[in-house]
Amino acid sequence: MKIAILGSGGREHALALKISKSPKLNKLYCIPGNAGTSNIAENVNLDINNFIELNKFVDGHNIDLLVVGPEKPLVDGIVDFFEKKNIKIFGPRKKSARLEGSKIFTKKICEKYKIPTAKFGIFEKKNEAIEFLYNSKMPIVIKADVLASGKGVFVCNDFASAKKSIIKIFDGEFGRDHKVLIEEFLEGDEMSYFIISDGENFKSFNTAQDHKRVGEGDVGKNTGGMGAYSPSGLINEELEIKIINKIIKPTLKAIREINDEYKGFLYAGLMIKNNEPYLIEYNVRMGDPECQTILPLLKSDLLDIIISCCEKKLDKNNIEWHNKKSLCVVLCSKGYPENYKKNIEIPNISELNQDRNNIIYHAGTKIENDKIYAIGGRVLNFVSISDEFKNSRNQAMESIKKLNWKNGFFRSDIGYKIIN
Ligand code: AMP
Ligand code: GLY
């Protein structure tokens, strides 16, 4: 088969590397890809949000299947667009992608199907939203109803910062759709739970915990993710049954009742308290860096699983996992998540040892005249698997220190809650 993966991050390099091992693959393209994917696929420099241009490429190269990495094209309806042209594409349609595109859409589903989640209110007027704060307990969570890569979420400890966040949203910092979601602050421990679904059947696709804050000890600004580990230390059989029955199944039912079917990865961001799950948010894709962390644990052929999803035969597919601990440390450009320099060379990557248990996935990199340059905030993902999280972290840190990239920084405490 001829496959094209859409996206350019660490998640897409991880998908590409796994798919590249499949005996069902004939030719792999990454659009646009990065320096890492250029070693295992042909990179094609196209804008994945321009469906017309993509279609010209897909037609001209007889692509059999498109695999979509990031959320934006999904929320914008890329799956509907290519399905109309009879091209196989793995991911949810526009209607279902609202689970990530609109937090209010998801909250309304939670309300209707009694899915456990934080209590919430939806406000369309600035004054009413601020008024509501007077009788609210702190901390409180203020959210813009847009796709803002986590930037539209404010966990506020006091009235003044909550009011400031509301004003920011109504002043249009996240676009012109002036609606605000105010949520009760949930206490507990976070966990990411993944499924893969073919529209009728679904299977668990493992668990992970990421570290979103830039600083060690989970302090500082939010980022796309500074590292992750898998599986989550919180998961157990009883909890998984609750997640499936109270959260996943009612959501898939809700999607059917709006006349759609959910095909693709679904990522549930959960808060766990006393072994009870509460839904914080949905993402309609794999997480980044959770994908890089989870895929090295997958024993089965990923391409085979994805094809069975596109053919509604996931129930015939047995997904097997290595019983190991995976941990990912993200190497970032100094200054991230704020301003950082671009086009800085990363020497010596090729000298680092990589094997089945130690993988380096590229994210914001490009290759030019055989040299590798950092062009993004998150640059490389060092993933190691072993029998203990501590050893996995040591292995990952060993490589990252060996690389000794002068323009980089990383968190050395990934997994601290489960390691210490
Ligand atoms: P979201 O983009 O909705 O996942 O929110 C980003 C992060 O904000 C989450 O990963 C949580 O750490 C935090 N968060 C969001 N909503 C809540 C909530 N209701 N209670 C506590 N923390 C929250
Ligand atoms: N790591 C968080 C995300 O992918 O949304």
Structural class designation: alpha+beta
Would you give the CATH topology of the largest domain? D-amino Acid Aminotransferase, Chain A, domain 1
Query: Tell me about the biggest sheet?
Result: 9 strands, antiparallel
Low-confidence stretches: none
CATH architecture of the largest domain, by name, is 2-Layer Sandwich
DSSP helix count?
A: 13
Heterogens = adenosine monophosphate, glycine
Instruction: Note the gap between the termini.
Output: 46 Å
Share in β-strands: 25-35%
User: Briefly, what CATH class of the largest domain?
Assistant: Alpha Beta
Helix content: 25-40%
Number of domains: 4
- Using only C-alpha atoms, the radius of gyration works out to 21 Å
The overall pLDDT average reads 96
- The total beta strand count reads 23
The CATH homologous superfamily of the largest domain corresponds to ATP-grasp fold, B domain
Shape: globular
Question: Topology, pairings included?
Answer:
Layout: E1 2-7, H1 10-20, E2 27-32, E3 42-43, H2 51-60, E4 65-68, H3 71-75, H4 78-84, E5 88-90, H5 94-101, H6 103-113, E6 120-123, H7 126-133, E7 140-144, E8 153-156, H8 159-170, E9 180-184, E10 189-198, E11 202-210, E12 213-215, E13 219-222, E14 227-230, H9 237-257, E15 263-273, E16 276-283, H10 290-294, H11 302-310, E17 325-333, E18 344-345, E19 358-362, E20 365-368, E21 371-374, E22 378-386, H12 389-403, E23 408-409, H13 416-419
Parallel strand pairs: 1-2, 1-4, 2-3, 4-5
Antiparallel strand pairs: 6-9, 7-8, 7-9, 10-11, 10-15, 11-14, 12-13, 14-17, 15-16, 17-22, 17-23, 18-21, 19-22, 20-21
Bound molecules: adenosine monophosphate and glycine.
Adenosine monophosphate is lined by residues 118, 141, 150, 153, 155, 183, 185-186, 190, 269, 280-281.
